[in-house]
Specification:
With 605 residues, this protein is α/β, with parallel strands linked by helices. The protein contains 14 helices and 31 strands. The two termini are 58 Å apart. The N terminus and C terminus are likely disordered. The structure holds adenosine-5'-triphosphate (ATP) and magnesium ion. The site of adenosine-5'-triphosphate has 14 residues, from helix 3 and strand 10.
Length: 605
């Protein structure tokens, strides 16, 4: 009996997969396993030492596109379960389909798994594998199944096969080729392999039960003829194994213990077990065999995750590319500023269960805030700038003088240090922090005016955060009536941080940056890519609910402490939300920030 190793940190919410693993560890289900240091058949592993990994999981992407937020959940699940229970997680490219797979995707997937913080190297051994490296074994296993009478070559047309498969209500009908002798099937299989037959002329099928209530067990196809160049094996093969046959073999050769997948594969589990049991009986695969477990995929609202649809968004130019900050791809989310930690928090908070459902996009935003709140340095930024001129500067402070101001990099964390900037006679404020004719309850700047009863009202007083209290005295407008400048005076003895500075009553606090030292910045503001929570639900074309206002670009100003910001640096712009320096376009002399998400809390007073 072995016990789970002590867990670190607060207890994690349990889930059915942890329960399964704990049960297997307690029962010693996998205790006698051996691992020869690399994938292989029964004889290979039998010659190896006992497996030091208590469990083995794997993340098995097909390299036919970019990873998305749903994959992050699968990566998190497989790698974190392995880590938690003293196991190892493999990264396996499930590249058995020659048609759509490319090196570009292989590289991008590796980069994203690493970015999420995971490593497939354990004890100096890299557990990065390609399913296509197992083609030889898969073929040898197919011959063994044929010789044992468990598989046959079917020469029916695709149409005949489909008709004879039956449906949910009707049992299937045996193929006329089903009764052929093993020797004849073996000869045909070898002809298929040797390229003597045209694509689609025949297939190899498992011989199970054409009347099974599970259609996946009605003699599923295990090999097909397909003349296509494979990114790894080139033109060596003209027959390729089907996913449902290949996947259990890949797991078994790698000595995977817990093969975790999404619910769509539940009906395939009996065939998964069928393949492994038969090949283990034939002595080809080592026992104990892997087991498949299914969980509900992550569905996040306001996005689509099907690779086909993501590709459409890129190819039809609804977005700028795979890494457009509005894309739910991992490259897009990274560029938008989402952190690995926030994606892992989302994965954890979305739960691991058998019940599907939709997770609101807001859960991802909440996870990002929770991650960045304690660590993203604060900064003042003005996104829609309006000039504020302090008309008594020369008298109060002195012409040409600047007042040094400080603010905490992280509130409540003095050890994180201070930001420094200066106040001068002209500052940028947000356009909507001024109203010439303020609505009721307006807490920001407004000029002196006369109320409906004829009484004179003074201009409003607000604090320029970390600076001074100012009182609005007026504004200037252009010919079109647009406000071009606001004027105010400093209120004496109200400098932030000086004794008595708080004695003066103000309407509120506003953000600002000095016109003399602010850094001009392009700021990209994003909203949901789709207006509908479930863009691809039902029959509707998801392109019909694209949000036309999903991106807005403004020219703003940020405080001078951001002059040295590096690509990927993240900040909280006070009041505006969390921002990241764009990893592609931000450069010395050209500041470009993406808004990751707004702040949930209202502007702190
Ligand atoms: P798509 O359907 O968009 O092509 P896929 O599921 O075919 O995606 P794979 O590369 O085969 O993509 O997926 C690799 C792994 O990621 C699989 O184990 C799959 O179950 C898992 N996965 C894919 N999408 C999600 C999701 N939304 N939630 C959780 N896991 C997922
Ligand atoms: Mg797939």
């Amino acid at each position: 009996m072995s016990e789970a190793p002590p867990k670190e940190g607060p207890p994690k919410p349990s889930n059915f997969l942890r329960a399964v693993i704990e049960r297997d560890l307690a029962a010693g289900t996998y205790a006698g396993r051996r691992f020869a240091g690399s994938p292989g058949d029964a004889a290979h592993h039998r010659a190896g030492p006992p497996d030091g990994a208590r469990i083995r999981t794997r993340f098995p992407p097909e390299p036919n596109g970019y990873l998305h937020v749903g994959h992050a959940k699968s990566i998190w699940l497989n790698f974190s379960l392995a880590a938690e229970y003293g196991g190892i997680c493999h990264l396996r490219f499930d590249d058995t389909n020659p048609e759509k797979e490319e090196q570009e995707y292989v590289d991008a997937i590796e980069e994203m798994v690493r970015w999420l913080g995971y490593d497939w190297t354990a004890g100096g051994t890299s557990h990065l594998y390609y399913a296509s490296d197992y083609f030889d074994f898969m073929y040898r296993a197919a011959e063994a199944l044929v010789e044992a009478g468990h598989a046959y070559v079917d020469e029916q047309s695709a149409d005949q096969m489909r008709i004879n498969r039956g449906d949910f209500a009707t049992p299937g009908t045996d193929s006329p080729f089903r009764g052929r002798a093993p020797a004849e099937n073996l000869a045909r299989l070898r002809e298929m392999r040797d390229g003597l037959h045209a694509d689609g002329a025949m297939v190899l099928r498992a011989k199970i039960d054409m009347a099974s209530p599970n259609i996946n067990l009605r003699d599923p196809t295990i090999y097909r003829i397909r003349r296509a160049t494979h990114h790894n094996t080139g033109d060596r093969w003209c027959i390729y194994p089907m996913y449902a046959y290949a996947h259990p073999i890949e797991d078994a050769l790698e000595q995977i213990t817990h093969s975790i997948c999404t619910l769509e594969f539940e009906d395939q589990r009996p065939f998964y077990d069928w393949v492994l049991e038969h090949l283990a009986d034939l002595g080809l695969l080592a026992r104990p065999l892997p087991k498949q477990y299914e969980f509900a995929r992550l569905n996040l609202t306001h996005i689509v995750t099907s690779k086909r649809k993501l590709r459409q968004l890129v190819e039809e130019r609804f977005v700028d590319g795979w890494d457009d900050p509005r894309m739910p791809t991992l490259v897009g989310l990274r560029r938008r500023g989402y952190t690995p930690e926030s994606l892992k928090l989302l994965a954890e908070r979305s739960g691991v269960s058998k019940a599907g459902g939709w997770i609101d996009y807001g859960v991802l935003e909440g996870a990002l805030r929770d991650d960045l709140d304690p660590k993203a340095p604060r900064a003042l930024a003005v996104l829609e700038p309006l000039k504020l001129r302090l008309t008594n500067w020369a008298d109060e402070i002195g012409a040409g003088q600047r007042l040094p101001c400080t603010a905490p990099r992280l509130p409540g964390r003095p050890e994180a240090g201070q930001r420094e900037f200066t106040l001068g006679p002209e500052v940028w404020i947000e356009r909507d922090d001024f109203a010439e004719d303020p609505p009721k309850g307006f807490h920001r700047l407004s000029p002196p005016r006369t109320d409906p009863g004829g009484a004179a009202l003074p201009g409003s007083r607000v604090r320029l955060k970390y600076g001074y209290v100012v009182e609005c005295t007026g504004c200037t407008k252009d010919a079109a009536g647009q406000v071009t400048e606001v004027q105010a005076v400093l209120v004496p003895d109200t400098r932030s941080g000086t004794p008595g500075a708080d004695k003066v009553k103000t309407k509120g606090v506003i953000g600002w940056v000095g016109a003399h030292d602010a850094v001009a910045a392009e700021v990209r503001l994003f909203d949901r890519l789709f207006t509908d929570a479930q863009p691809d639900a039902g029959e509707r074309d998801f392109r019909e609910c694209l949000n036309p206002a999903s991106r807005r670009v403004v020219q703003g100003f940020v405080e001078p402490s951001l002059a040295g910001a590096q690509a990927d640096d993240k900040f909280q712009f006070e009041r505006h939300g969390y921002f990241v320096a764009d990893r592609i376009d931000h450069a010395p002399g050209r500041a470009v920030f993406n808004r990751i998400t707004t702040l949930k809390e209202s502007w702190a007073r």
